[in-house]
């Protein structure tokens, strides 16, 4: 399975569209691009793998692995990238501004259900991040 995240960059946040086989799963919000600096930047464009992860804070969620010079890059609910994210990716149902979204938990559950179904079949889930042309 390959998830395609197409980003649009703004000074106040990064918005994205997450698709699978050409169909929209959800929108995304992230921090702005700041040269991949920990806790203040979105991650670089490229190809990554996704796995299940559990923590007390987020319970079951998704982790983006093998990000250069970064760790614990997660998919988790958030509606304001600048206030709630430290480099992670937040699924949102609707974008409401640069780095801002609505109904994140609903979008996160939709994404998690889809990805967990694939991972439970022992299949690989890839994330390809590109810029909107």
Summarize the topology.
Elements: E1 2-10, E2 13-20, E3 23-30, E4 46-55, E5 59-65, E6 73-75, H1 81-84, E7 90-92, E8 94-97, E9 100-102, H2 104-120, E10 126-131
Parallel strand pairs: 1-10
Antiparallel strand pairs: 1-2, 2-3, 3-7, 4-5, 4-10, 5-6, 8-9
InterPro entries: DUF5675
Domain DUF5675: 5-115
Protein name: DUF5675 domain-containing protein
List keywords for this structure.
single chain, 133 residues, 16% helix
- The ordered H/E elements are EEEEEEHEEEHE
User: Biggest sheet, open or closed, and with what strands and sense?
Assistant: 8 strands, mixed
Strands side by side in the biggest sheet: 6-5-4-10-1-2-3-7
The appropriate CATH architecture is Beta Barrel
Secondary structure category: alpha+beta
State the domain count.
Answer: 1
Radius of gyration: 13 Å
Determine the oligomeric state from the structure. Answer: single chain
What proportion strand?
over 45%
Pfam families: DUF5675
Domain DUF5675: 5-115
Protein name: DUF5675 domain-containing protein
Condensed summary:
By secondary structure, the chain is of the alpha+beta class. The chain has helices spanning 81-84, 104-120, and strands spanning 2-10, 13-20, 23-30, 46-55, 59-65, 73-75, 90-92, 94-97, 100-102, 126-131.
Mind explaining what this structure looks like?
With 133 residues, the chain is α+β, with helices and mostly antiparallel strands. The chain has a single domain (2-131), classed as L,D-transpeptidase catalytic domain-like. 16% of the residues lie in helices and 46% in strands. It contains two helices and ten strands. The strands form two sheets. Strands 6-5-4-10-1-2-3-7 form an eight-stranded mixed sheet, with helices on one face. A two-stranded antiparallel ribbon has the order 8-9. The radius of gyration is 13 Å and the shape is globular. It starts with a strand and ends with a strand.
């Amino acid at each position: 399975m390959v998830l395609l995240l197409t980003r649009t960059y703004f000074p106040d946040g990064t918005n994205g569209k997450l698709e699978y086989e050409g169909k929209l799963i959800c929108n995304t919000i992230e921090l702005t691009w700041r040269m991949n600096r920990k806790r203040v930047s979105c991650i670089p464009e490229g190809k990554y793998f996704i796995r299940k992860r559990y923590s007390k804070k987020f319970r079951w969620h998704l982790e983006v692995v093998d990000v250069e010079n970064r760790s614990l890059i997660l998919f988790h609910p958030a509606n304001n990238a600048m206030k709630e994210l430290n480099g992670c990716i937040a699924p949102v149902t609707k974008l409401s501004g640069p780095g801002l979204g609505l109904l994140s938990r609903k979008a996160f559950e939709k994404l998690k259900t889809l990805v967990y179904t694939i991972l439970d079949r022992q299949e690989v889930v890839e994330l390809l991040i590109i810029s909107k042309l």
